Amino acid sequence: MNSAAPSETYPIVIAGAGPTGVTAATLLGHYGIRCLVLDRWDGVYPQPRAVHLDDEIYRILAELGLADDFAAISRPAHGLRLVDRDLRVLAEFDRRGEQGRHGHPRANMFDQPALEHLLRTNLKDQPSITVRGNVEVTDVTQDGHGRVRVDFTDRITGAHESVLATYVLGCDGANSVVRSAIGARMEDLHFEQRWLVVDVATSADLDQWEGVHQVCDATRAATYMRIGETRYRWEFQLLPGETADDFASLQALLPMIQPWVRGTAISYLELVRVAEYTFRAQVADRWRDGNVFVLGDAAHLTPPFIGQGMGAGLRDAMNLTWKIAGVLAGDLPESVLETYEAERKPHAQALIRLAKLMGVLMTQGGRAGDTARRVLAPRLRYIPGMRARILDSETPALARTALVRRSRLRRSPAGHLAPNAVISDSRRFDQTVGHRFAVVSAQPLTASQRSLLTSRGAVSVEAPAGSPLHAWLIKNHVAAALVRPDRTVMLASRDAAAVCAATPTFRPERERS
């Protein structure tokens, strides 16, 4: 038991400085909230893991101020090819040249350590954030009066330390200490596969299609993708009895990667990493206990077949941080924090189910499955709506909560992200509204309505006829929409006055200054 007296008190302590933890800290820093981030590593974890994010997650990176920096280290993917074991193309879904409705490519490949370096460098611009590396969080306890004690050990000196916090965010990964401390457990969603992950660097041109190649084979499913100017990723399903040790050299890997590197001398290839991963589908049974929350891999694990694992954690951070900021500022009731799990858990589960389905369709079924894939895959594009569904990166709407007021009777944009449309002078919606609530209206608001919004810290955005935002409102048969600071539509209606009246007061510290 750690007996060290708490040395300091923070509004927020974040366990884990991976992409989810650093994103959460940066977003809280936008509101001037003091945060302590504790991480067991002294810097960026060096091994590549995630390699893909969509335009919704790109939008979050832009919110952090990293749009241009991320563009410099990422490659828009051309799309997806389904191929058989002989690499014959079964189906192709081409995304070349497509910008999503948020102003970014819909599929983006990157090297995770490079992204984490950008995130950490960017965090240094937040004066209210303190990061301590080389420390191991050992326990999290609550006193029942709104204070949380976080115990941790310095991994260099062995010293035991403690701090107090109002809220603790557990962004500490699949083996989360924070999750264990609140008594939550991972529920198994019944998917488990062992895969070999291979990263190779080369300046040689492999002369391959610049998208994701998914080998649909019940015996040895595989994935190939270019993730950087000189970086390539392969993933191969391991057979029973195989381990990563069986493929520890390029010579051992060559039979599997040969179809993509044919014509390139092995001396031009550098093996960066070979690792074995068990792809699992799991979700925590609860994501909150009092003032302690879990986010990212601490809350959910997603098979990689739709490239949503890391992005789910960033979605968690985007959803929760503004709510905490509003509660700390006294603008929002503490009850809004109940909407975090209510909104994010069903959304994460939906993407996990989709990833499981894709994994099963691509890798299982034996010879009969392979035959079915050869017959059906080329015909997917002719199934009404199927091509658009595969190419569209839009994720499901959030569930109804106090902060998502979606009608049961008709379609509503509530729960969906508002489009990050160009408004004027090449400025997009996000740049215009900042970290506030916004009312988007198809008609000019009255002076009293604008005054009401200003008094509550919100901003009004008029969508003139012919503009993308106007078309979005008309398509959804509404006159106005209330958009939350995380860009989710809270409420949409034909009555603009009702939308304005529903806008909550939200003026966290930095927004007031």
What does this structure look like?
The protein has 513 residues and is α+β, with helices and mostly antiparallel strands. Among the domains are: 9-47 and 57-73 and 111-187 and 281-351, FAD/NAD(P)-binding domain (3-Layer(bba) Sandwich); 422-512, Glutaredoxin (3-Layer(aba) Sandwich), CATH 3.40.30. It is built from 15 helices and 25 strands. Strand 14 (222-226) and strand 15 form a beta hairpin. Helix 1 (19-29) runs parallel beside helix 4 and helix 7 (309-328) packs antiparallel against helix 8. The two termini are 43 Å apart. The model has no long low-confidence stretch (mean pLDDT 90).
Total strand segments: 25
Label the CATH architecture of the domain at 9-47 and 57-73 and 111-187 and 281-351: 3-Layer(bba) Sandwich
Q: Span from first to last CA?
A: 43 Å
User: What's the story with the biggest beta sheet?
Assistant: 8 strands, mixed
Shape by Cα distribution: globular
Overall pLDDT metric:
90
Enter the CATH topology name of the domain at 9-47 and 57-73 and 111-187 and 281-351: FAD/NAD(P)-binding domain
What structural class should be given to the helix and strand makeup? Answer: alpha+beta
Task: Kindly provide the radius of gyration, computed on alpha-carbon positions and rounded to a whole number of angstroms.
Answer: 24 Å
- Proportion of residues in β-strands: 25-35%
Can you identify the CATH superfamily of the domain at 9-47 and 57-73 and 111-187 and 281-351?
A: FAD/NAD(P)-binding domain
Low-confidence stretches: none
Estimate percent helicity: 25-40%
CATH class of the domain at 9-47 and 57-73 and 111-187 and 281-351: Alpha Beta
Number of helices: 15
